[in-house]
Amino acid sequence: MGIAQRHRGPDGTRHLISADGRAVLSMNTLLIVDPAARSGPYEDPASGVVLTFNGEIYNYRQVAAAWGIPLEPGESDAHLVLRAWAKMGPACLAALDGMFALAVYDPREGRLFLARDRLGEKPLYWRLDGGRLAFASEVTTLTGYGTAPLVVRPEMLSIETPAGVDTPFQGIQLLAPATLLAFDVATGSLAQQTWWALEGLEPWQGDYRTALARISTLLADRVPLRSPGSDFALLLSDGLDSSVLAYLMHPQVCITVRYPGQDRLDESATAAVVARDIGAELMVIEPTAQDFARALPEIMHALDYPMGNAPTFSAHMAYRAIAERGIRVVVGGLGPDEFLMGYVRHVLVLFGPQAVLGAGLESYRPLASKLLHPAGEPLEPAEAIVRLILRRQDPDGCLREVVADTLRRAKGDLARGLTLAGLATAWRPLVMTSDKLASVFALERRSPFPARDLVEFCYQLPIKHKIGDPAAGKRILRDAAKSLGLPREVWGSRDKLGFASPVPSWLSGPLEGWATAQISSALDQAPRSLRPLLAGGLRPGGRFDRTRMQSLMAASWFNDHPVAVI
Fold first, then answer.
1. Which of 319, 314, 316 is nearest to 253 (CA)?
2. CB crowding 347-371: b at 16 or more within 10 Å, else e
3. Which of 173, 311, 339, 548 has the greatest number of C-beta atoms within 10 Å?
4. Do residues 445 and 438 make contact, with C-beta atoms less than 8 angstroms apart?
5. Is there a contact between 7 and 18 (Cβ–Cβ < 8 Å)?
6. Residues in CB range of 158: below 8 A, 6 or more apart
7. Which contiguous run of DSSP H or E holds residue 88?
8. First vs last Cα of the chain: how many Å apart?
9. How far is CA 453 from CA 98, 303, 459, in A?
10. Of 251, 321, 255, whose CA–CA distance to 279 is shortest?
11. What is the pTM assigned to this prediction?
12. Which domains does the chain have, with CATH numbers?
C-alpha cells in the first residue's frame, strides 16, 4: 500500500510495525522544510506511540516551545505531533494550525487514531474489513487492499461528486474534516467525534474599522507563516485572493494559464502587473484542446473518481509545468470566497437576481435565471441555494437535506448558512482536486487563507463587512488589499474567473467527435445506474454547461475501473 502511493513522497517510503505487533504504518516522505529530516513513520521510544503523517503544522515550533517539547536537528513537525500525542493524546489537536491527515497507534491503549485537519485540506480514506482497519491518502490504495465495487451515489448526478463521507467505492469512506476516529484493535469497536467546529463562534461585535485592522494583522501574521522558506510557485490569476498572497509571500515564481483565442479567460495582463511589482518571474502556459485529450486519463487516475471543479484542467497543466521546473511547493488562494461571500451565488441568495443583473454582471444571467419564480415571488433561501448548486436533478433529495442541515446549524444567519453549505458541497472537490492533482507530481499544495484564526474571524463577521457593493463580495479583503498597495485592477475587479478553461466549448467544438466516442464507448458497457450520468453528455450544451465535461470524466473513470458496479 505504501509503494502504491510513493509518488506522494519520492524521498522515501518506509513502514514500521508497532512494538506489540498489532499495527503497521507506512509513510511516503516529501522533504520540504528540512532536506536532512528523517523519514517516517516515527516512534516514541518511551511510550511506543507510532505516527504516520501527511501535511504541515505551520505553528509547530511555537507549540513545541509553549509545551516544552524538545526538537533535535533533523526533526520536524511530525516529531512535535508524536511527542505531544504521547504526552496528552488527542487533546493536542486543538493547538495545531495546519493541514494534515495522520494516524497514531498507541499501544498503551491498544487503539489506532485517525485525524484530519479542520477544513479537510488533506484527504484520508478508510475501510473496515474483517476486524482490521485500513487507511490511506488515496482511494486506489484501498481498492488495491481489497475489492470495492463501484457505487453511483445520487450526488454524482446532482453536484458531480459524492457528498459527506461517501465515496463511489463500496465500503470505503472519507474521514470528515476535523474528525477523530478511534479504533480498538482488540475488540474491533470504532468511534468518531468532531474535534473542531465553526458553529459555536459568537458574532463579531466590533465596528468595521476595528475589523479591518484585525484582518490586516491576521493576514500579515498568518499568511507568511505558510511560506516554505525556499523556492515555491504561486498560482496567480487576476483575482484578489492570489494577488494578496503574492504581495504577502513574495514568491520567486508565479504561474498563470492563458488560452489562445479566449480573451474572456485571459488573466495574464493583470498577473504580469502583480509579478512585476513583487519582482517575481511569471510563467505563462497555454494549454490546447489536444493537451486536454491527452491529459484526461492522467487527471482521472489522479483524482480517483469524478469531482466537480471547473479549474481542474488548468490546475493540472500548471502543476505539471511547476514540477518540470523542479519546484516542490505550490501555493494557491482557496478560502476567501467561501468565508467572505465571494461567489455570485452568495449575492443571488442574499439580495436576489436583480441585484446582480442591475450591477452590470450580465454574463451571470443564466445563473440568475435559476432563481426566477413563476409567480414573481422570492424563493425560500434553502431552495435558492439548492438551485444554484445543482448541476442536474436531486432525485433522492440528498442535496436538499444537506443544505437544510447547514441552515439549521447556522441558526438563522443566512450568510453563515451559505458558508456552511459551501463547505459541505463545493469546498470538498476544491481542496481534494488541489491535493490530488498536485500530489501526483510530488508537489505540496498549500492554501494560506484557511489558517485557523483567519477562518474563525471571517466566519464571525457580519454580512455588511463581507459585502458592501452587491457586485463585489469580500469587501473587507478588498480594503485590506488597498492598504497593501495592490493595483486597482485587482481590488477593483468585479468578475471572477480563477483559472477557468474553455473545455466545455472544446467538447462541443474541436473535441466533439472524440468526446462523443469516449462517452458512447463507456455507455455501451455501463450499468443502469451510471447511464443517466453518461447519456447527459451526448446532448448539446451551452457555453457554460459542464454536463458534457462531467459525463466525459465519468466515462474515463468507468473505463479505468473494470470492476463490478452496484
1. 319
2. bbbbebbebbeebebeebeebbebb
3. 339
4. yes
5. no
6. 390, 391, 392, 393, 394, 395, 398, 399
7. helix 77-88
8. 25
9. 11, 30, 10
10. 251
11. 0.94
12. 3-194 (3.60.20.10), 208-335+427-452+475-491 (3.40.50.620), 503-559 (no CATH)
Read off the amino acid at residue 429: P
CA 452 to chain centre: 15
3-state secondary structure of 45: coil
Q: How far apart are CA 418 and CA 381, in angstroms?
A: 9
Which of 477, 211, 484 minimizes the C-alpha distance to 336? 477
Cell numbers 504577502: residue: 248
Distance CA 467, CA 54 (A): 36
Q: What is the dihedral of CA 212, 218, 219, 220, to 10 degrees?
A: 110
**pLDDT by residue for the chain (566 residues), tens digit each?**
999 999 999 888 999 999 999 999 999 998 887 777 778 899 999 999 999 999 999 999 999 999 999 998 878 899 999 999 999 999 999 999 999 999 999 999 999 999 999 999 999 999 998 889 999 999 989 988 888 888 888 888 888 888 889 999 999 999 999 999 999 999 999 999 999 999 989 999 999 999 999 999 999 999 999 998 778 999 998 689 999 999 999 999 999 999 988 876 777 888 999 999 999 999 999 999 999 999 999 999 999 988 877 789 999 999 999 999 999 999 999 999 999 999 989 999 998 888 888 887 777 888 888 887 666 677 899 999 999 988 777 777 888 999 999 999 999 899 999 999 999 998 998 999 999 999 999 999 999 999 999 999 999 999 999 998 776 789 999 999 998 888 887 787 665 555 678 888 899 899 999 999 999 999 888 878 888 888 888 887 655 567 888 899 989 988 876 555 55
C-alpha distance from residue 490 to each of 8, 235, 333, 339 (Å) = 34, 15, 14, 19
Asked whether the beta carbons of 241 and 449 are under 8 A apart, the reply is: yes
Q: Are 414 and 420 in contact (CB under 8 A)?
A: no
Grouping H, G, I as helix, E, B as strand and the rest as coil, residue 527 is coil
Cα gap 241→237, rounded to integer Å: 9
Tell me the C-alpha distance between 390 and 535, whole Å.
18
| Length of the chain measured in residues | 566
Q: What is the C-alpha to C-alpha distance for residues 242 and 534, in angstroms, rounded to an integer? A: 35
